[in-house]
Specification:
single chain; 174 residues; alpha/beta; 4 helices; 31% helix; globular
């Protein structure tokens, strides 16, 4: 990536295999890798980082615990990662959506870019996992609000375009 000299890079989740148990040490290693890029790196989580940790091969861990760890590790500030950082506007500024620190927005060349936290494994819409449906509903509402705000900002700036980044299909099939 550094040889290509991009203006920025967006990583759309799945920093590890879904069958691999999560560890805080690995999360910190990924953060170091992100920070090794010369240009800004903006990240949005994938299902392998948190929703899939409930699986037996992952130690039957609590997805909500790992979601909190992902937010704490990668989204402590409103800045990109990488050696060169750019400021981000995050949803933490929006009343009622303060915990959705991973939804970010920035502008480059007039285009408004945004990440929205939508992941695989049915976007954590998993009725058999305690707390999953409540988490999904709340995050889904935050994502919808963030997309509306992103397009409102683009209209207000007369932006030539909008680019949204997420890890998985933003439209549930069922």
């Amino acid at each position: 990536i550094n040889r290509r000299h991009p203006a920025f890079t967006v990583h759309c989740g799945d920093t590890k295999k879904g069958s691999e148990p999560p560890t805080e040490a690995f999360m910190k290693q990924v953060h170091r890798w992100f920070d090794s890029l010369d240009a800004p790196l903006i990240y949005t989580p994938g299902d392998n980082e948190w929703t899939d940790v409930h699986r037996k091969n992952n130690g039957s861990q609590d997805p909500l615990v790992w979601l909190a760890k992902v937010r704490a590790e990668y989204f402590a500030t409103e800045r990109s990662m990488g050696r060169t950082q750019i400021p981000l506007v995050t949803q933490r500024r929006d009343k009622g959506f303060e915990k959705f620190v991973e939804n970010a927005r920035w502008t480059r060349g007039g285009v408004v870019f945004a990440t929205v936290h939508v992941v695989g494994s049915n976007n954590n819409r998993q009725p058999t996992i305690p707390g999953a449906l409540e988490e999904w509903k709340e995050r889904d509402e935050a994502v919808a609000d963030w997309i509306r705000e992103t397009f409102a900002e683009a209209r207000g700036r007369s932006a030539p375009g909008v680019a949204l980044f997420c890890q998985a299909n933003p439209v549930l099939e069922n």
